[in-house]
Amino acid sequence: INAEYMGVRVRLSAMMALRCIHPSRLISRVGVARSTRRLLSTSSCSVRVLRRTLPLPPSTIQRCGGIRLVEVRAEQGTDDARARRAVSTWLFICAGITFTIVVIGGLTRLTESGLSIVEWNPIMGALPPMTEEQWIEEFEKYKKSPEFYKMRPTGFDISDFQRIFFLEWFHRLCARGLGLVWLLPLLHFARKGYIGRLGLWPRMGLLSVLGAAQGVMGWCMVSSGVEKKNFDGNDNPVRVSHYRLAMHLMLAFGLYIPMLWTAFGVRTARPILSKATGAALSGSRARMITKVATATVLVTSFWGALVAGLDAGMIFDDWPTMGGHAIPPELYRTRSSLKEYLEDDVAVQFFHRCLAYASLLIVGASYHSARSAGALVKNLPVLKAANLVAAAVFLQVTLGIITVLNASPIPLASAHQGGSVLLITALTYLTHCLRFVV
Length: 438
What we know:
The protein is flat. Residues about 1-75 and about 270-280 have low confidence and may be disordered. The chain has helices at about 80-110, 130-145, 145-150, 160-190, 195, 200-225, 240-265, 280-310, 340, 345-375, 380-405, 410-435, and strands spanning about 1-5, 10-15, 25-30, 40, 45-50, 60-65, 65-75. By secondary structure, it is an alpha+beta fold.
């Protein structure tokens, strides 16, 4: 059977060897285009073209149990290959910048630098103060903020202000840079027709909206720490809302994961071959467990942001106990609402640890199921991705324990946050690879 779509020519042939298998057992799902649904059939097998898949690579042969079931060859034009290579490289660069922004954002919170810039000026704020007069003007604005007159020690001068200012300014500069790196190539690829050819317009629209929402959420978070009405007349420490901080991180992941997923999909376009065998069941089970593991790690990261927002990581410096107890006595206090648990530093750290243990177990199950599925069909990318997940979760757990035992020093706490992004990256890659074991 010959099929052609968007310049992709596919020749399909099914061959049976060693034993006779009923045609209904040979169901191959081969992705050729994003929005096409066609059914092609022969006397020996069926071939279905699915949506949300990408063009095939030059040659792929799937084997199962020593029997060659389906051989797929695709010949692709140079323009299509160039489009996929250019778009995927751009998306990987954007994902890398997002990764960097998340790490720097965590560092600004840990160093208490996030409230040094008290205004949101997306255009003119791209440049730091250049003259002494401009520095004095920025410092005077900061002096009027609650953080300065309630939290900063006597003797905090303009040189100290410049140190915290530059870290927050660099964080915002990276965010602005991401916007430019996103928008300008997007317009270029749209003009050349790459985005439409690959069927990526819906995803590009979604990612653009998420990026804009992330910028707005970032200022909403900062504003919660610079508005005087939130702190006047009380003894509350001046800091951003830990709820908004956690939502800011979740929006970052909400931008990072689809961006990374799309980049993997564009770059590693391969057929999806489905067989009614143990490999199909094993691959489906592994995908489900890996998705649950990703969700659990995201919830754990959300709780970690609450820990950072409340400075709760420094109240206990022992592990596996907390203050010498498996369950801290403070948790037995009567609380009238869930909000009191979310604003109690002991409870927040305790639940963060519990979620970390749950994540370790579920990620371990994901590793085992993915290794089993990959070994069954000899899928090397799945095996490598599973090993990456194992290395990432080991690194993250080790960093978490060392961070706790050392009372959360800034370098270790920052590395721990970066480890969570690495783990999410590895799980996303594993989930993507498991799409080819179905």
